[in-house]
phosphoinositide 5-phosphatase (Cercophora scortea), 1339 residues
Amino acid sequence: MDYSPPSSTLWSGQAPSPEKSSQILIREYPHRALAIASQSHAIILRHSPTTSEAIANGSLTSVASAHPRAGPDGTASKCMVEFSPASDQLLAGYRPLTPRPIFGTLGLISIGRDAFLCVITQASRVATLRPGETVEKIEAVQFFCLNSADYDDVVAVDPYDVDSDAASVYGQSLGRRDVAVEHPCLELQKLLSNGTFYYSTDFDVTNRMQDRPADAVAFDIDNFDESFLWNSFMIRPLVEFRSRLQQQERDALDASRILTSAIRGFCKSWAIPQTSAPLKTTRTGLPSYLTIISRLSCRRAGTRFNARGIDDDGNVANFVESETVYWSPSGVVFSYAQVRGSVPVFWEQAAGLIPNQQKITITRSVDGTQPAFDKHFAELEQAYGAVHVVNLLSESKPGELELTNLYRFGVRNCPLSQPGEKQSRDRALLRETEYDFHAETKGPQGYEAANQIRRYIERSADGFAYYLAEEADDEGETNGRSSSPKSRRYIVILQQEGVFRTNCLDCLDRTNLIQTIISRMAVESFLGHRGERAASDFWSRHANLWADNGDSLSKIYAGTGALKSSFTRTGKMSIAGAIADFRKSTTRLYYNNFADKYRQNTIDNLLGRLVGQTPVILFDPISDYVSYELQRRSSEFSSNEKINIWVGTFNLNGRTDGINEDLSPWLCPPELGSVQPEIVAVGFQEIVELNPQQIMNSDPSRKQLWEKAIKRTLDRQFSREGDERYVLLRSGQLVGAALCIFVKASSLHNIKNVEGSVKKTGLSGMAGNKGAVAIRLDYANTPICFVTAHLAAGFTNYDERNKDYATIDRGLRFQRNRGIGDHESVIWFGDFNYRVGLGLEKAKELLRQRDLEGMYENDQLNLQMVAGLAFRFYSEARITFMPTYKFDLGRDEYDSSEKARIPAWTDRILRKGTNLRQLCYSSAPLRFSDHRPVYATFECTVNIVNEKLRDKIGREIYDRRKSEVGSDTANLVADDSEDEDLIGYDAIEPGLPPASSDRQKWWLENGKMPRSSISPPKPESPAYQTILNPKRPSNPYTPTEEQDWVNIPRRSESRLSSFSSMSTSPYEHVNHSMLLSSSASNSMPRKTPSYEPSTLPTKLGRLQLNEEAKTAQFDGTPPPPPPRRQTGMNASGPSSSANTAPQLARKPMNTGVPIPPARNGTVASQQRPALKTAPPPVAKKPAHLTAPASPATSTNPSLTSEPTTQSDISKLQQAELLRRFSANRQESTMNKDEDVSRLIAKNSGANHESHHPPQLPQRNGSSANLVAPGRVTPAGAISLVGLAGHDGRPQLPERKAVANSSAQMRPQPPAPRRSQPVDLLGDDGGMEMGGGWEALKPT
């Protein structure tokens, strides 16, 4: 990494560099939109009201129209968003909204019905953690309204700029307003501009250094810790929008530095000159940096007397994470974190005007407090490891003593503090030290006596260690040629494994002084391990930083600076300091009693916690569509590749004499052949001797020696032409357990998101002599996790080993709260300490016989895995090597000491993942330890995405989709369409489509024809079927109590042929599998005959055979067909059924001419045939319709026939019939009728027999062979050819009689729709409803 010499831009008071700034632009026509434009890209935002808002306004007005401002109603504001490369065309019509640059956005917030964009208008650099990682302090912000220009010239006076924007926006002055308007976000603006908020566009400032990537160049917005992200409510919509972008656009948005993560608390750096730096370096002229960062949690944020104690989610008031960071030009980074927070019990304290007399009230019993107490410390343990509580409350003050007793009770009953042997080892991670600060510092030494706390916490401080990373060289070269220049990157050497939690009553003054001492202890430990000491000038800067930190945190919580800060700075308490403390105490009384209430309301508004407050919703329909399509077409741009992984584990027994030995039998076994693995994962146990002095501390020096030995062996073995050198990717250590990951130099570009973590399980979780070290990485798009572990020892302690595994598997966490099980491939390896459950003699006998199967049958790990008690879903290859424990040093003989340990396979390698295939599993003959090293090789299938091809496909999908939907984006500039007014409007009622326009119609899907499919509901029982209710009004919007569907008994299809076309909508398609083919008659109605099953015709139609069987079992009397639904359409309108023939034009007919008899003469002229129903319009005719009718089904010819079936002719034949009928309509009625009958008989008589169902008796004495006079077909009704009154001959549509013959040749228009209902089953004259459908209601 290259370092530039320090410049003035690194120091406080300097504005951020120009490349970190943007410009905010506005366009007012045709619709108001705001744009944040960086040097390369722009993000455009435009408000879009919802339908409910438009209705409240009285009309669906344009987005740009002003609308009345109302209070919050729970309706979320919607905004369209677009992110694109900046161009003159994109930003045409935009102009600057403010003359000064902006330095990022804090997000969006809605106030009432207005949506506001918050941007940083002034900032100054205050800290440099290391080169490339800077922190800026927010000094001024502004809120710009997205949907209204009313507040554009309402700008609060900027205290940092005499030339305020208040009079410069659009060249307007506040003087043009008669009445001053207060900006709705004024209080938020004051809060964010008070100098307590910080941000960084270089790195994730919400996470401590240990919880983010070691290299400064990495910046992962997805890893924000929302506990410390104070603008999480406002920035969340933009972060969610970012997550929906493609990777290329996402990287561009991150590089634009538009999105900003803001913390609240304190941040400041001191530059340490080279002469005062504790670590010397050969790089002259470069200073070291000492930094303090304090992050105040926003989970239970509030002012002093408004936020006390704990809540039910385990969050405590005034919770702060303070991190001390030191960077040296030698390439060393040190970090140490500690936390403070209110006493974690439910308590309150009312503000009062008398100092130190505010009464403390306990609001919940100890039993009711314990669940929240446990949750709080469980989260601390998961985030930091073991927790050591330092309680500074006084025992002489009754209120504080009561809190101490409750605190002590909670710790004593917390599962984390139980050290019992029967408890799981991961649950004993909580210790407490009670230190009465006031009592300890009353003596002559004063506050200097506080240093005596060191002896109470020294042991835990050594065990917690610290975070340490060092720069290392990457040698990106292959043998024979150089592939890349040498570069430097950070390697994690050590990690912090615990945290101190300090508290007093307010967690301000006493707490800050003790935390200063703890921070100094950690820095001294770091320097001591390197053999260095710091000068007094260094410690003076350290003390001043902590004093400034205390003042800043105290102003946020209590309103004034911290007390005792003069002692923190100088180490002595002066009279001036005492007077300053008295003044601060008095000022606190004013703030706490009169100002904190309003400050609390503003904080809640910023965090989105007010009642009814909703976030702003961002939507980008095109990007969402592209994401879905890319996921569906992932196979087009992704492929699989196979890589080789070598994994090895070795218990070193604390010995170092093997460092200089040849490790190639283990690291480069013969099974590899000429293959050079892409990844080499090496796990060590007992890398140091596990004595009482070592188990509480991790010394990285021994691990570094073994790293050099491994790399030396790999470079020597893979030195052939074309082989590549290995680089150390990352290593980690937990006292004696260590894990080192080496990768080929050419594989580095495929590896990302490398993270490490540790988990202690030794000595009730406080010591690291037992536990695990894990490293995870993404190889291309495949997440892989390596875990090396050293579990509990002892022949019979397999249950403790199971608990250790469960502790590690459940408790070990990486960034984003990822666990071990969240990876596609997982490899566990290490000294698991599972033994073989046999006696010594029996085991040795089996080994002499090389009966490994007999040994393995008694292996404890094998039995525990089979029982599902450990390593569930993991697999182990077949063991073909001898047990690896325990050997005499330097010999191949098993333990010959007095303990005579039984040989066992304690060192194992397990795998999980369908993409892993194990190639070998064996041990190596290295004899300098009492264990033998074990190794395995794997072939791993990884998924590789072609990013260029993916981006190309994504761009094609984006362009095509944009051309389909037009320019309906946030940057719409066309003003000749009403589509813009409707973008973002939701439906008025649930289930209805959104508003439509000339271009976008919900009933047309990309130009497709409108369609609707109606499926009837299931009937109550199989004996019934569901049909449309014929009594429902034709207008679906007419109020009615009639149901849409009714149930009727199932009968033969001939009874239901007229039920299929009852819809009044021309777009409605009725499911004909349930509602059968249509058949209607305009003939004279008849009364229902007596039911005689023997006289019924053979069942015809489209019912399935199994339905016929069901129907045959039903013997109820069927109702007659219902009347056809009347429509308001004319005769030429679309048919209401897909199977209904077009309606013929009406023509007068000679009513005195009798209808000629049928040609076959089988029945009298009063009889009409029951023709077979036409087949449905499907690709294949059902089998039961192609079978010939049986003669046994013919009916008695003496009975009359019910005209309810159609001729079994095709639709083409019917169309031909209609054409001929229309062409010859000038002929006489008799000849025409005879021709039609002859044509039908010709088409149907040869293949079908006529069957004659019983004929209904005529009503009112009507004659069957004459057309009823005065019969008029209602408008919209449909007459079908083929329904005749003679055997084998259709009856023509009825005609009205006219006076002259000229009218007879002219078609008549359809009769107007009658207002009264028409009974198709009643008689022609009276139209009574008696005896018709009204008399037979469906069941």
Remarks:
- DSSP finds 27 helices and 38 strands in the chain.
- The two ends are 86 Å apart (CA to CA).
